[in-house]
Design goal:
The protein has three domains: 109 residues, no CATH class; 98 residues, no CATH class; 77 residues, no CATH class. It is 70% helix and 3% strand. It contains 15 helices and four strands. The strands form two sheets. Strands 1-4 form a two-stranded antiparallel ribbon. The protein starts with 15 loop residues before the first helix and ends with a helix.
C-alpha cells in the first residue's frame, strides 16, 4: 500500500491502520520519520512505524525526537539491538524515573559494542582492510590473466592441430615428389612451402592438386604460381574457404584455373595427329613442336611442325580441330611433293634467272 509519490517506499512498512492512528496534521511528518529510519535498515523502519503512532498521539514532539535519536544510537552499534530497543522504549518512557530509558539505551549500546578494541585487533582489522583493497584492485588483473590463459590455450590447440597436419604433410610429400615430373619439382616445392607456411591443412590439399595440374600440364609453373597466390588471398580471409580452393572444391578456384589455362598442349594430342597425318599422306610422318625445331628444319617431307600449344579458341575441342586442320595442310604438302622439289628439275628457268641476275658464286 502506498500513500503518494512524496511518501517513497514507506508504504511497505506502514499499514493503513497505523497511519489512521496518527493525527492528520502529523501524518506527513510520521511518514518522513519512518522513511528516515528505514534507510538505516528495513526491520528498523517496520518497528518504528508500529511505535511512532503511540508517541505522536501524546503530542510530545520532543519525546518523539529523543526516541528517534536513541534508536539511531543503538542501531549504529547493531541494527538487531536497535529493533528491540525501538520496541521497548515507549514502555520505559511511561516509568516515573525519566532516567530509566536513558540508562537502558546506554547499557544496550555498551553491550552491543563490547570493550574497546585491543591494539592487535585494530592492527588485524587494518591489515585485512588493506588486503581487501588490494584484492579489489587486483580483480581487473585477475580477469585479464584469465582471458590471456583462454587465448593462449586456444592458440595452443591451434598449434597442436598445425603440428598434426605438418606431420601428415611430411608423410605425403615424398611419394608425391616421386610421381611429379622432375622439371616441375622446384616450382612445386616453392608453391607448397608458401601454402604450408599459411596453413598446413590447406597445403595437404594443394599438394595433390598441384601434382595433377603440373603433371597434366593444365597450367605452366608460372600459371601455378599465380593460382597459388590467388588461393593464399582467399585463405587469409577464410581458412575453410581457402582449403576448399586448394582442393578445387570452389567455383572461384576453377574460374582462376580456367583463366590461367594456356590452351591445348601439342604433347597431349601429338600421337593422334601423327596417325591422322600418316593416313592422309600415305607415308610415315612425325609431329614436332615449333619449339623443338630450327627455322631451316621447319619445311621437311619427314615431319609436320605445329605450335606447342593451341590457344586460338577458348575450349580444347575447337583448338584440337585447329590442330587437325594444320596437320591436314602439312600432310597435303608432303603428299603432293611440296618439299620434294629440286632446282635441277627446272634447268631453263634457272639459266634464265642466272643470266638476268647473275649466278651465285
Amino acid at each position: 500500500m502506498t500513500f503518494g509519490p512524496a511518501v517513497g517506499n514507506v508504504g511497505m512498512y506502514v499499514a493503513r491502520e497505523m497511519l489512521t492512528a496518527v493525527p492528520e496534521a502529523q501524518r506527513h511528518a510520521y511518514l518522513r520519520m519512518v522513511e528516515e529510519i528505514s534507510d538505516l535498515k528495513y526491520q528498523l523502519g517496520v518497528e518504528v512505524a508500529r511505535q511512532l503512532p503511540r508517541l505522536l498521539a501524546q503530542g510530545d514532539l520532543e519525546l518523539v525526537g529523543r526516541y528517534l535519536d536513541q534508536v539511531k544510537a543503538v542501531a549504529a552499534a547493531g541494527w538487531k539491538s536497535g529493533v528491540e530497543v525501538a520496541k521497548q522504549l515507549p514502555d520505559l518512557y511511561e516509568a516515573p524515573d525519566e532516567t530509566l530509558a536513558e540508562s537502558y539505551v546506554e547499557i544496550v549500546v555498551d553491550a552491543t559494542k563490547g570493550p574497546p578494541e585491543e591494539a592487535e585487533t585494530a592492527e588485524l582489522a587494518a591489515e585485512l582492510a588493506a588486503l581487501e583493497r588490494e584484492l579489489r584492485e587486483m580483480e581487473p588483473k585477475v580477469k585479464r590473466a584469465q582471458e590471456l590463459r583462454s587465448q593462449l590455450a586456444a592458440r595452443d590447440r591451434r598449434d597442436e592441430k598445425r603440428r598434426k597436419h605438418a606431420v601428415e604433410l611430411a608423410v605425403a610429400l615424398p611419394p608425391i615428389l616421386a610421381r611429379l615430373r622432375p622439371r616441375y619439382r622446384p616450382p612445386y616445392l616453392s608453391q607448397i612451402r608458401q601454402v604450408a607456411a599459411a596453413d598446413p591443412e590447406a597445403s595437404l590439399e594443394a599438394a595433390d592438386t598441384l601434382l595433377d595440374l603440373l603433371n597434366g600440364e593444365r597450367v605452366s609453373p608460372d600459371g601455378a604460381d599465380e593460382w597459388v597466390a590467388r588461393g593464399l588471398e582467399v585463405l587469409e580471409r577464410n581458412k575453410e574457404v581457402g582449403r576448399g580452393y586448394f582442393r578445387l572444391g570452389s567455383k572461384y578456384a576453377l574460374q582462376v584455373l580456367d583463366e590461367l589455362k594456356e590452351g591445348l598442349a601439342l604433347k597431349s594430342v601429338a600421337r593422334v595427329l601423327k596417325l591422322y597425318a600418316v593416313a592422309l599422306s600415305g607415308q610415315e610422318v612425325a609431329i614436332r613442336g615449333a619449339n623443338e625445331t630450327s627455322a631451316i628444319d621447319a619445311y621437311s617431307a619427314e615431319h609436320i611442325v605445329l605450335p606447342p600449344e593451341m590457344r586460338f579458341f577458348d575450349d580444347d575441342e575447337r583448338n584440337f580441330v585447329a590442330y587437325k586442320m594444320a596437320t591436314a595442310h602439312g600432310a597435303g604438302r608432303i603428299e603432293f611433293g611440296t618439299y620434294g622439289f629440286r632446282l635441277d628439275q627446272i634447268p631453263d628457268t634457272v639459266h634464265h634467272l642466272e643470266r638476268r641476275y647473275g649466278s651465285s658464286p
